Amino acid sequence: MNLIHQIFSMNMLLATLRMAIPLTLASIGGVICERSGIINLGVEGMMLSGAFGAVAGTYFTGSSLAGILFALLVGGLTGLLHAVLCIRFHTRQSVSGVGINILASGLTIVLCRAVWKRDGLSETVKQVPGISIPGLEKIPVIGRLFRGQSPYLYITVLIVIIAWFVMYRTNVGLRLRVIGDHPKAAEAAGVNVTKYRYVSVVLCGMLCGFAGSYLSIVQSNLFVKDMVAGRGYMALAATIFGGWNPAGSFLTALLFAFAQAIRINVSLNIPEQLLQMLPYVLTLLVLMGVGGRVRGPQASGDIKD
């Protein structure tokens, strides 16, 4: 009974929601990018760039808001780099994405050394404070969802709703989905496919940068080398398992986050190393189980269509 109580507790729910935030943001970025026909394996590197950018921006300005804006800028520029390589120079999209991951991993270590004279470690900075919603925070039981929570939580839910609405209830979303499946038909209908693709990849980078900033100035108060720790790949798995749908990606991110939260909130007589492996093992199982059966955008990866 104690185990069941721990799993179905408010603490477990709150931990799951918090850990789902960066996965959800990056996954929705992946949805937008791949719906435009561009495969993005560089989500991990874009998140890492955003995490560094958030700390650097906060460190130099003393404002966490400036840090968030800097993370969005750095993430957007990283997305633009991927877009230029894939769209302008027709680089293999998988190679470009992996290259961005390697570049971000190495460059952030070099910049840490240049700015803080430390190898892969920054100084501590101001964190983004939690907020409470007056009135809602006093509701019995669920009031904790609105008390002292990070604004990222509410922004993430809002982004999920907006992304789903735009994708499936607007002409912009319809054009984006057509571009991902039949870009020639979209061009014949007068849609500027190149413009949509550039905007989509840059927006993906910004969302990944925003996700990275959550890791460095909300969950933590400093940058540590490779602190994204595979979450970018988990976000890609959420994109696939969620059917390239913002709502599906959010639900899948919750599943992966639940696996992460178990290690923190549930007392199990299992070696710590196995609990740390759980989210990554779950990611692999999901990809093995559905990776060959789900159907993504038909023109994804084929920029010449």
List the helices and strands and how they pair.
Blueprint: H1 2-7, H2 10-35, H3 43-61, H4 64-88, H5 93-116, H6 151-169, H7 171-181, H8 183-188, H9 193-217, H10 231-241, H11 246-265, H12 272-290
Helix pairs in contact: 2-6, 2-9, 2-10, 2-11, 3-4, 3-5, 3-9, 3-10, 4-5, 4-9, 6-7, 10-11, 10-12, 11-12
Short description:
By secondary structure, the chain is mostly helical.
Description:
This protein has 305 residues and is mainly α. The protein has one domain (2-290): ABC transporter involved in vitamin B12 uptake, BtuC, CATH 1.10.3470. Helices cover 69% and strands 0% of the residues. It has helices at 2-7, 10-35, 43-61, 64-88, 93-116, 151-169, 171-181, 183-188, 193-217, 231-241, 246-265, 272-290. Helix 3 packs parallel to helix 5 (93-116) and helix 10 runs parallel beside helix 12. It starts with a helix and ends in a 15-residue tail after the last helix.
The CATH architecture would be Orthogonal Bundle
Mean pLDDT: 91
Shape: globular
Give the termini distance in whole angstroms.
Answer: 57 Å
Q: Which features characterize this protein?
A:
305 residues; mainly alpha; ABC transporter involved in vitamin B12 uptake, BtuC
